[in-house]
């Protein structure tokens, strides 16, 4: 029986497909490549930091390496990671539709992503950028590295993200299965809706910021360069107006996956469906008000106070979601499979990330902790511990559905514990180092911090090994012959009602929905 | 004019109305993105007007507001002809729609030509953007105004060129019959885009030329 | 080198020693948030652990014991209580922040200029020092800071204060140290290659040491000129970019430099004699040697003529 | 919904004429110096014109679902303006911040005394 993978053969049938499932798989492969490149850069960074003086890289090369790590991880991996891969593949299936609203636009957004990635990689070859992924002026307008190339690449990647957002909004509004009202949609779709709103409303401001940066660098019109009358803090306002909503583009789909995983592995209805749905939208809206907490040390005191207050407000909806998930586990029948292990890992790490966010939200504390390793640890706990753990949980949860193969549960547990211990070893030490005063983006440091850096580097090796183990057993699962069942976890959402690798035309007869997505124990009509 | 060609509904939509509404919602999401894109430029304009208010008033005197006025009138007429072409295609008289489309196209072209005249006049006074600015002026931060002026009007002109390409593509589709009363979505969408470009100029004209 | 107090050995588990006179509450606020987070985190851990143990699934498709979908009372509680806690933390943080940012009227004004990769302090009597901020103890200090090239950020970990240093604008930061000793100063806003070497020393001394520092003349006649040049080579930060062992770093090496033929970026040539060396120290932009960036800041006003002669003598010494 | 509902021609003609009149009005009103009211009036008239184009030419008058995007985008823009201007307006409110006169580098020929009025205003903060 032909499924969407064996539908047509040949590379062209993949590169010019209009099928949302194939586009999702292509994104998955490109995301892995970007993650490998960014991860490799991270391992070299950590290796260099083993000692204060030069081991591998000179100061300039180190700066280029951490910019590469930041830019590739943020723009090429984590922003498109969940919406473009799992979102593209499962949004239509969870809605009971056969494709997204604009398939050609979907393919165009993948090709734009490839073009943007090409520019970023080209900038690496042409003497890569050494400004940090934030491109702060006046350094980015005065350095002699290939800033224009990288900035064009990121500009193009922004449009891929906007087009995905536009696509998802139209799909969710108009392609829902008959009977599926807004409150019968799975919560993963709710979070993708909130993410798409942010993607559409925030990314263009990044586009205009980068255009102005390029014009400033080439013609020097003097709006960011202080020597000719500009204001560098204005660039920071422009940049963070996009970049803080961008971190919610990263975390919201991750929270969406958590709802799917926790209900299936506790075989229990979600606790507080409406609360979680509304908190996704609340996060999407408040995320536009808080960008100033990245500028506490450079903006005026009145603005800092307002931003600090609003930053605390945005913490509340995240807290509500975490409490709801814990409540869902209460009296659940819990099955500790790999996806659920990653869910528990997510809860553990995301809660630590959230609490350290409270530290950084308080004005006085942030003045001490701003631009130190405390901030580095905070955003790795929230982005790695949050988004990446949810991405891995989602991938393991939907792996049998996507490829019709099952991965080995035992190997998955080994990889989980390797990554969990490695991650905590790498980044918890950085909290201590950061609050002690160790600034970030430092190539060499004072003697006393060496022990912390060495522990952190050894931890990063564990992380590297963990991901290699994961890669091995995932590829092994693809090569194994035996077919995974259609619904291995006994989930109720629509994508589990169709055969494992779904056909090209997934739903022969559009399903009719008459009850909520997670109503376990309610007899089927 | 060729025969109107029948169009098969894509398999994932179950009726034409749903497809039209989805396309319109997608277009409005794209319009929201464009609003935010230009908002960055308006904020930059506002910030630097706040930093040096007298210079902005002095600099806007240097611009020739008569050309700006004629440009605004042309864009409003082009918006009207665009709307009339959508109206006619909905009534299936394709010739009138095509005439209106060509009118919109030429009005846009005239707008760009006037723009080039304005730019040339600026260059003669030496008001080049940013680094190459060598103009005389009572204020030493005059180059910021002209840097912003060229950036904003340049990006707006770029959007007009994209609009003209879209209109040309529409004229071809009206001609070869793939667009008709049953399926006029592309015409409506390009119309929305064109009206947006006109609205941006409506805001730009007073801010840059008159204040 | 002068013994800078360690950040890790002194002070509490998470924070370096707090020597600030008016920011005593900072550490209390930090540890209140810390212990609140630990309690809530351990609470969630226990709940989660207990739910997993009690809920282990026996046979394959066993449903949850009870399908609870919502409980309005519980949901209201866990929305209102965190909001209250968080607002309290906000106000406390804001109160502390205002203390940090208001400068006492009788503050001693010191000008700070952040240049690419070192700090230059100008004291009230016009004396300039590089990477060395000497302040009297228990005296409110007001730093008026500006940068000459890119963004920097002036960070005193032991005083819990930090402020961005922006070109073409003066930003102000104030602190009052209550304890003697030498402390670290870091640059925390990324500013290029030597961002990590842009360190300075805060020396808190009692007031008469401070006045003697102000009148102290850098230059003492007793030692030979080239040896004085060697001290200035270290004291004024030349070692950050120029080496004396022949290896070229950010700037060309000083070994064998004297009377050497120098080719410049614009193709012209000149011999490295006294006139050229003095001009390159005071106006580095004028003649850029081929293959080097134009990043050297001017030392005009930073070095008196005698000090420049000492440096030139030292270079001659190196070139023998 | 307006899918197959065709907007009658007279709406278009009236809006067109209204737009022309308003454009001429904008130019005339800018001749009169209203002092501090100059910018708000100009932006007000432009908003009215934009509203007309949006409501009738773009068919927003008969829309429901798509309005959230228009108002969402405008709200985001207003937020962007608001918070950026809070920072700019209150610079130096507590710790006095002085903007050095713009020390120009090569690109611009300084024709007028360096210390022009706008940065004096900043000094007086």
How are the elements arranged and paired?
The complex is a heterotetramer of chains A (525), B (211), C (320) and D (125).
Chain A: H1 11-15, H2 20-48, H3 59-95, H4 103-125, H5 139-142, H6 147-174, H7 187-219, H8 232-266, H9 273-286, H10 301-329, H11 338-361, H12 363-369, H13 373-403, H14 409-436, H15 450-479
Helix pairs in contact in A: 2-3, 2-4, 2-15, 3-6, 3-7, 3-8, 3-13, 4-6, 6-7, 7-8, 7-9, 8-10, 8-11, 8-13, 9-10, 10-11, 11-13, 11-14, 13-14, 14-15
Chain B: H1 16-51, H2 53-62, H3 65-90, H4 94-124, H5 142-175, H6 185-210
Helix pairs in contact in B: 1-2, 1-5, 1-6, 3-4, 3-6, 4-5, 5-6
Chain D: H1 9-31, H2 38-57, H3 67-89, E1 98-99, H4 117-123
Describe it for me?
The complex is a heterotetramer of chains A (525), B (211), C (320) and D (125). Chain A has 525 residues and is an all-alpha fold. Chain A has helices spanning 11-15, 20-48, 59-95, 103-125, 139-142, 147-174, 187-219, 232-266, 273-286, 301-329, 338-361, 363-369, 373-403, 409-436, 450-479. Chain A has one domain (19-497): Cytochrome C Oxidase, Chain A, CATH 1.20.210.10. Chain A is 68% helix and 0% strand. The radius of gyration of chain A is 23 Å and the shape is globular. The mean pLDDT of chain A is 92. With 211 residues, chain B is mainly α. Chain B is built from six helices and no strands. The model of chain B has no long low-confidence stretch (mean pLDDT 87). In chain C, the strands form three sheets. A five-stranded mixed β-sheet of chain C has the order 3-2-1-5-8, with no helix packed on it. A five-stranded mixed β-sheet of chain C has the order 4-10-9-6-7. Helices cover 32% and strands 20% of the residues of chain C. Chain C folds into two domains: 1-54 and 66-216, Sandwich (Immunoglobulin-like), CATH 2.60.40; 225-319, Cytochrome Bc1 Complex, Chain D, domain 2. Chain C contains six helices and twelve strands. Chains in contact: A-B, A-C, A-D, B-D, C-D. Chains A and D meet through helix 7, helix 8 and helix 10 of A and helix 3 of D.
List its salient traits:
heterotetramer, B: mainly alpha, Four Helix Bundle (Hemerythrin (Met), subunit A), 6 helices, elongated, C: 320 residues, alpha+beta, Immunoglobulin-like, Cytochrome Bc1 Complex, Chain D, domain 2, 5-stranded mixed sheet, 32% helix
Architecture of chain B in CATH?
Answer: Up-down Bundle
What is the CATH C-level name of chain B? Mainly Alpha
How much of the residues of chain D is beta strand, in percent?
under 5%
How many separate helices of chain B?
A: 6
Q: CATH H level of chain B: which superfamily? A: Cytochrome c oxidase, subunit III, four-helix bundle
Instruction: Indicate the low-confidence ranges of chain B by residue numbers.
Output: none
Query: Structural class of the helix and strand makeup of chain B?
Result: mainly alpha
What summary fits the major beta sheet of chain B?
none
Beta-strand level of the residues of chain B, as a percent range?
Answer: under 5%
Overall spatial form of chain D: flat
Q: How many β-strands of chain B, per DSSP?
A: 0
């Amino acid at each position: 029986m032909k499924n969407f993978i064996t539908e047509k053969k040949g590379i062209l049938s993949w590169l010019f497909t209009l099928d949302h499932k194939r586009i999702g798989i292509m994104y998955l492969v490109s995301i892995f490549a970007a993650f490998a490149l960014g991860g490799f850069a991270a391992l070299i960074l950590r290796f260099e930091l083993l000692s204060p003086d030069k081991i591998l890289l000179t100061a300039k090369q180190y700066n280029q390496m951490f910019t590469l790590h930041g830019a590739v991880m943020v723009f090429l991996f984590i922003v498109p990671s969940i919406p473009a891969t799992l979102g593209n593949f499962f949004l239509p299936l969870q809605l009971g539709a056969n494709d997204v609203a604009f398939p050609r636009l979907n393919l165009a957004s993948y090709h734009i992503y490839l073009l943007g990635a090409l520019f970023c990689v080209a900038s690496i070859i042409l003497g890569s950028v050494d400004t940090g992924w934030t491109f702060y002026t006046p350094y980015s307008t005065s350095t002699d590295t290939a800033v224009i190339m990288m900035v064009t690449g990121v500009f193009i990647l922004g449009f891929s993200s906007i087009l995905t957002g536009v696509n998802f909004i139209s799909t969710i509004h108009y392609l829902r299965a008959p009977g599926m009202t807004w409150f019968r949609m799975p919560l993963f779709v709710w979070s993708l809706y909130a993410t798409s709103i942010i993607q559409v409303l925030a990314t263009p401001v990044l586009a205009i910021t980068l255009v102005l940066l390029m014009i400033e660098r080439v013609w020097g019109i003097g709006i960011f360069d202080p020597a000719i009358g500009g204001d560098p803090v204005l660039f920071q306002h422009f940049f963070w107006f996009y970049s803080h909503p961008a971190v919610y583009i990263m975390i919201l789909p991750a929270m969406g996956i958590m709802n799917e995983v926790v209900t299936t592995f506790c075989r229990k209805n979600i606790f507080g469906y409406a609360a979680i749905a509304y908190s996704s939208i609340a996060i999407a809206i408040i995320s536009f008000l808080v960008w100033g907490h990245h500028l506490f040390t450079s903006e005026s005191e009145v603005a800092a106070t307002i931003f600090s207050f609003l930053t605390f407000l945005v913490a509340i909806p995240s807290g509500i979601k975490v409490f709801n998930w814990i409540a869902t586990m209460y009296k659940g029948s819990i099955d500790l499979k790999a996806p659920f292990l990653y869910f528990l890992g997510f809860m553990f790490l995301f809660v630590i990330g959230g609490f350290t966010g409270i530290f950084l939200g308080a004005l006085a504390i942030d003045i001490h902790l701003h631009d130190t390793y405390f901030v580095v640890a905070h955003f790795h706990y929230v982005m790695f511990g949050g988004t990446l753990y949810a991405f891995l949980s989602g991938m393991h949860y939907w792996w049998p559905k996507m490829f019709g193969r099952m991965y080995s549960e035992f190997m998955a547990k080994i990889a989980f514990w390797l990554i969990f211990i490695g991650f905590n070893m790498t980044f918890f030490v950085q909290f201590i180092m950061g609050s002690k005063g160790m600034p970030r983006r430092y190539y060499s440091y004072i003697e006393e911090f060496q022990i912390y850096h060495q522990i952190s580097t050894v931890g990063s090796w564990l992380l590297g090994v963990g991901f290699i183990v994961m890669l091995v057993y995932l590829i092994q699962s693809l090569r194994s012959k035996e077919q995974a069942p259609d619904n291995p976890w006994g989930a109720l959402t629509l994508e589990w009602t169709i055969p494992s690798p779904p056909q090209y035309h997934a739903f022969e007869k559009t399903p009719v929905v008459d009850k909520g997505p997670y109503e376990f124990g309610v007899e089927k009509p | 004019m060729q025969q109107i060609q029948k169009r098969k509904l894509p398999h994932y939509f179950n009726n034409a109305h749903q497809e039209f509404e989805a396309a319109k919602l997608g277009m409005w999401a794209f319009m929201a993105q464009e609003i935010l894109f230009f908002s960055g430029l308006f904020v930059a304009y506002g910030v630097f007007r706040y930093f040096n208010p007298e210079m902005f008033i002095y600099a806007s005197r240097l611009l020739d507001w008569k050309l700006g006025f004629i440009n605004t009138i042309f864009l409003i007429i082009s918006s009207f002809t665009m709307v009339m072409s959508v109206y006619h295609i909905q009534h299936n008289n394709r010739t009138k729609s095509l005439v209106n489309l060509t009118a919109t196209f030429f009005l846009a072209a005239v707008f760009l030509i006037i723009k080039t005249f304005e730019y040339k006049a600026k260059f003669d006074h030496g008001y080049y953007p940013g680094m190459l600015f060598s103009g005389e002026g009572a204020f030493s931060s005059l180059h910021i105004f002209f840097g912003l002026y060229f950036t904003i009007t340049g990006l707006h002109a770029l959007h007009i060129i994209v609009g003209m390409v879209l209109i040309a593509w529409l004229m071809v589709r009206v001609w070869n019959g793939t667009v008709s009363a049953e399926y006029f979505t592309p015409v409506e969408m390009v119309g929305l885009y064109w009206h947006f470009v006109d609205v941006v100029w409506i805001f730009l004209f007073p801010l840059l030329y008159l204040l | 080198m002068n013994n800078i107090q360690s950040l890790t050995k002194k002070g509490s588990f998470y924070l370096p020693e707090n020597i600030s006179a008016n920011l005593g509450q900072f550490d209390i606020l930090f540890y209140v948030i810390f212990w609140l987070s630990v309690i809530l985190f351990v609470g969630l851990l226990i709940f989660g652990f207990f739910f997993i143990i009690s809920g282990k699934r026996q046979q394959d498709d066993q449903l949850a014991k009870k399908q609870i979908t919502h409980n309005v009372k519980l949901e209201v509680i866990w929305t209102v209580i965190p909001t209250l806690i968080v607002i309290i933390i906000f106000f406390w943080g804001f109160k502390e922040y205002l203390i940090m940012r208001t400068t006492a009227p009788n503050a001693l004004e010191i000008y700070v200029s952040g240049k690419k990769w070192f700090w230059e302090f100008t004291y009230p009597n016009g004396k300039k020092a590089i990477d060395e901020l000497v302040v009297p103890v228990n005296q409110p200090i007001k730093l008026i800071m500006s940068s000459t090239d890119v963004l920097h950020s002036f960070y005193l970990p032991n005083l819990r204060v930090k402020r961005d240093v922006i070109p073409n604008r003066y930003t102000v930061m104030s602190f009052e140290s209550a304890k003697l000793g030498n402390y670290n100063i870091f640059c925390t806003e990324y500013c290029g290659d030597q961002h990590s070497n842009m360190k300075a020393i805060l020396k808190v001394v009692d007031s008469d040491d401070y006045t003697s520092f102000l009148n102290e003349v850098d230059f003492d006649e007793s030692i030979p000129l080239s040896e004085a040049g060697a001290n200035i080579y270290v004291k004024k930060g030349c070692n950050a970019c120029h080496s004396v062992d022949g290896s070229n770093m950010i700037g060309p090496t000083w070994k064998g430099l004297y009377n050497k033929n120098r080719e410049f970026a614009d193709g012209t040539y000149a011999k490295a004699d006294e006139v050229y060396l003095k001009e390159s120290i005071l106006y580095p932009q004028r003649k850029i040697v081929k293959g080097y960036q134009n990043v050297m800041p001017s030392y005009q006003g930073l070095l008196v003529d005698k000090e420049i002669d000492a440096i030139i003598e030292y270079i001659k010494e190196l070139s023998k | 919904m307006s899918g197959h509902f065709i907007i009658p021609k007279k709406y278009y003609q009236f809006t067109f004429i209204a737009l022309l009149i308003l454009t001429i009005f904008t130019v005339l009103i800018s001749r009169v110096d209203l002092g501090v009211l100059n910018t708000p009036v100009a932006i007000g008239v432009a908003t009215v014109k934009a509203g007309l184009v949006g409501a009738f030419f773009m068919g927003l008058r008969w829309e429901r679902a798509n309005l959230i995007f228009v108002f969402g985008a405008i709200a985001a823009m207003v937020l962007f303006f608001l918070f950026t201007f809070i920072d700019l307006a209150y610079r130096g409110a507590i710790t006095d911040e002085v903007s050095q006169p713009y020390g120009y580098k090569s690109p611009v020929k300084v024709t007028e005394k360096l210390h022009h009025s706008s940065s004096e205003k900043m000094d007086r903060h």
